């Protein structure tokens, strides 16, 4: 493990963004690239979306590559970090935006579906954060994604909220375990945001009702969330071990 002091930090920072092909992850990847970071996009299966995001970044003058990988697979994630180090020289920022959301009342949820969601959302978070803890350079940032539903307690969200509460626990504990390394670890908890993850399967009445839950009376946008990711990945060095609710004021 190579230690980097402020005097030896690289001029170009390097970010790994899981779930980076579209939605919040894709917008975060584009924003970090616009901030001057080289970006490694990790995605599960949407080749066209991942390639499009890379093309958008490179067309704007940035550096990016995409790697298809299962974030719950230790060997695959190890190879992602190896590639980032080989191609760009190291890893400074890790954004774990990958996740799946399956909704059902607790009494009705299919336990196989529960296991599938927890494999990605919990085991995947452990695998990504384990490699990040070993490899992120001094001055870096680890940013995980939770959800405002952990606080809102909406019906049908029990399994998803439970998986994201685990991500919050991982983040806050890892921040303390990295004492002395000058690496921040935080969780970002979006509210209802206009992405396929949120919109799929909801009728317009439900979408409109949830959009009005916050005082801004609108859905969040991926750009709203990427603004916070950019802050935590760059100037927000004094924010550490926190869950940031990015939801327009949903109580």
Describe what you observe in this structure.
There is one protein chain. The chain has 251 residues and is of the alpha/beta class. The chain has one domain (14-245): NAD(P)-binding Rossmann-like Domain (Rossmann fold, 3-Layer(aba) Sandwich), CATH 3.40.50.720. The chain has helices at residues 23-34, 47-59, 74-88, 111-135, 149-152, 158-177, 196-199, 204-211, 222-233; strands spanning 14-18, 38-43, 64-68, 93-96, 141-145, 184-190, 243-246. The chain has a seven-stranded parallel β-sheet, sandwiched between helices. The N and C termini lie far apart (42 Å). Residues 1-7 have low confidence and may be disordered.
Topology record:
Blueprint: E1 14-18, H1 23-34, E2 38-43, H2 47-59, E3 64-68, H3 74-88, E4 93-96, H4 111-135, E5 141-145, H5 149-152, H6 158-177, E6 184-190, H7 196-199, H8 204-211, H9 222-233, E7 243-246
Parallel strand pairs: 1-2, 1-4, 2-3, 4-5, 5-6, 6-7
Helix pairs in contact: 1-2, 1-9, 3-4, 4-6
Describe the main β-sheet briefly.
7 strands, parallel
- Please state how the strands of the largest beta sheet are arranged side by side: 3-2-1-4-5-6-7
Q: Percent range for helical residues?
A: 40-55%
Distance between the termini: 42 Å
- Shape annotation: globular
Which class do the helix and strand fractions yield? alpha/beta
Task: Give the percentage of residues in beta strands.
Answer: 5-15%
Radius of gyration: 17 Å
In the CATH scheme, the class would be Alpha Beta
CATH topology-level name: Rossmann fold
Under CATH, the homologous superfamily reads NAD(P)-binding Rossmann-like Domain
Mean pLDDT metric: 93
Per CATH, the architecture is: 3-Layer(aba) Sandwich
Spell the H/E element sequence. Answer: EHEHEHEHEHHEHHHE
Tally of extended strands? 7
Low-confidence stretches: 1-7
How many DSSP H or I helices? Answer: 9
Count of spatially separate domains:
1
